[in-house]
Each structure stands twice: as structure tokens, then as C-alpha cells.
Amino acid sequence: xxxxxxxxxxxxxxxxxxxxxxxxxxxxxxxxxxxxxxxxxxxxxxxxxxxxxxxxxxxxxxxxxxxxxxxxxxxxxxxxxxxxxxxxxxxxxxxxxxxxxxxxxxxxxxxxxxxxxxxxxxxxxxxxxxxxxxxxxxxxxxxxxxxxxxxxxxxxxxxxxxxxxxxxxxxxxxxxxxxxxxxxxxxxxxxxxxxxxxxxxxxxxxxxxxxxxxxxxxxxxxxxxxxxxxxxxxxxxxxxxxxxxxxxxxxxxxxxxxxxxxxxxxxxxxxxxxxxxxxxxxxxxxxxxxxxxxxxxxxxxxxxxxxxxxxxxxxxxxxxxxxxxxxxxxxxxxxxxxxxxx
Amino acid sequence: xxxxxxxxxxxxxxxxxxxxxxxxxxxxxxxxxxxxxxxxxxxxxxxxxxxxxxxxxxxxxxxxxxxxxxxxxxx
Lengths: 342, 75
Fold this sequence. Notes:
heterodimer; A: 342 residues; alpha/beta; ten-stranded mixed sheet; two-stranded antiparallel ribbon; 10 helices; 30% helix; globular; B: 75 residues; mainly alpha; 4 helices; 0% strand
């Protein structure tokens, strides 16, 4: 477990697609109306933010970051590092963060890199950003996080279609005397198969010019039961251990911002952590599970709904890897911008 | 949990109109799908606080196999 001194999360912003596609439309002709009702009731997603074919994660992130520069008094010159957390980059190479540095008119004197993480990505990004600030002349790090996982779903993959949405977010982590962040990061490489896209990188090339049945292998696979099993077995102890390391009692925590895996997972975690359900908000019903973006997306959606995002908070991202990253952070000084659309 | 309570519960979890008995083959129930599997998994491990593995549920053939998984914690 790790504690990082003199840092805070200063501001965040999130952008989703302008057209939220209802689940009925998403699953039309694939499953029965009854199955759609069952999915809505237990998984909790009613509509999905779906990027059009020309929109990449980086496009959402650019809009999210520009919104920060417009709304908050932060200058581009103050940014000393740019971190882009995604599993859906623009190109195989170079790292998309280089394209983003140019698009966002950020200075040359900046450290820039991509991080390939999904559901745990935002909390990992906070950890990396907060750690960099310990040894950076600049006062701020720009963290861009997001994914367009709908592009990884095979056309009749009911599980994928009824869970994933697209989004991009931006956050600024700053030096701040006296404030502390606490992290618990865990790695479970033995479950790497639970959420996997086997083709398209260097181990297995994409299948081209064959029948569509084989093409299924080009897309993402998720073993839903294994993922739920993992979440309920390993996430609660990770969070409990972190709270005790940070000397924080669950009753003092204002809110638990969890990766918006789905509503069933969050309800289970509330029960296992002994926390009232309203303290583990599920705010992605009209957006979908947006992978590395889902925690800031939920926060920005809460702002749009007039709910406050402040105070002593627990953040926890868990999934693809399999990976868990949790944090205890004081969000009292956070400027959370309302969620926007592209 | 007795047999009747269990059949009521598993019918509710699957949200099926099929009349289930312990001998019902899961493959004959249209609603026994990945969604029912995760619902049953969370019912066992979170509500009942058992330690049932996803693979044990997936390899069940009949309703009775599921009932046995519930029994394993208490006997």
C-alpha cells in the first residue's frame, strides 16, 4: 500500500457521445423483449453512449480537456506531464498522448506517455500522476482517461452490447501542501483470460478475408461470471485494507466512487462492504460501462444531476488485467464539471 | 432452505415461466443464460455468504445440481 503526500485532484471533466442509444435499439433482432427487460432490471443499463465510426477516445478527451482550460484557471504552461490511459488508442504507434500534446497545444517541456489499462485505469492514472509530481518541476499533471469499447464488440455479442459505452475524460492532479492520497494496487495476471481481445496486436494478427464466424475472434471476449466472481471476492478486501492503512472508517467516507461495472456488481459490493447502497452511486444507466472513464464519468454525471462530489472519498477501479486500483482521496477542493456531449 | 423455497427462488432468479422441478434440465430452460448465472452467483456468494465458484454453476446440468451448491455451505 502506498501513500503519496502533498497532492490533490484539482478538477475533472467528462464527455460522452451525443446520441445515447437505448438498449432496445442496441439489441433489436438479437434477443427477446423479455430478455431486454431482464437485462435492464439486473444489469441496470438502459442506454449507451456510442461513438460514431469517426470518433476515437482521444477526441472525447480533447473536448474534456479543453472544457477544463475554458472553465478553470489553469494554464497549459503549468502542465508538466500528460498521461493518456486507454486500451483504444488512435494508432498502433506512436502513443496517442503525443498526438494529444499537439492537439491540446501543450508545451514541449512535458513528459508524455500512454498507459494500457481499462477499468482500473483512472485510479492508476491518479497514482502515476501523483507520484510524478513528487519529482517534477511543474505543479500539475494532466490525466486523460477513456475508451471506446463499443468498437470492440462483435455485432451479436449480447453481453458486450448490453454493458459497454464510450467516453473520454480529463483531470488535473496538482501539488497541494498537506493533502495526501492513499492507494492499494493489486494485480491478478492469472485471470488475464476473463476479459480479453486476443487478436489485433502481435501475438495473433486479425483474421481477414474469412467467413464472419471466424471474425468473432477479432473482437472482445468477457466471461461475465468470472468477472463477477473476481469482483465480489477480491474488491471488498482490497478496499477494507486500504481504509485501515489510511486510518479511515467507512462511516466517515462521504462516497464510494466505484468503477461502473454494472448495477448488480455495485449492489453486491455495497452489501459486502456493509455500506448503504446510496453511498455507492450507480450513475451510468444512460451511458454504459465506460471502462477507464467510468469513475470520472459517474462523478461528472452526478454534477449534472446536482449531486455533490466532495469530501473524503474512496475510489475503486477493478477489471481487465485482472487489476484492482483503489484510492482514499479528499475531494473537498475538487472542481467537478458537469458531463458534456460530443 | 427447503426444496420449495429453493424452487421459488431459482424461478425468481431466472425470471422464467417454466414450471421447475429438481429434475429440470437447465438446458431446457430458455432463461438459464449468462444473466441467470451471474444472478445466481451473487445470490449464493453475497446473499447467502457461501463460497460458490462460477465454474461450479456453469457445470450444473439440472436444477438439483444448483440446489446442491446451496447445500454445501450448511451441511
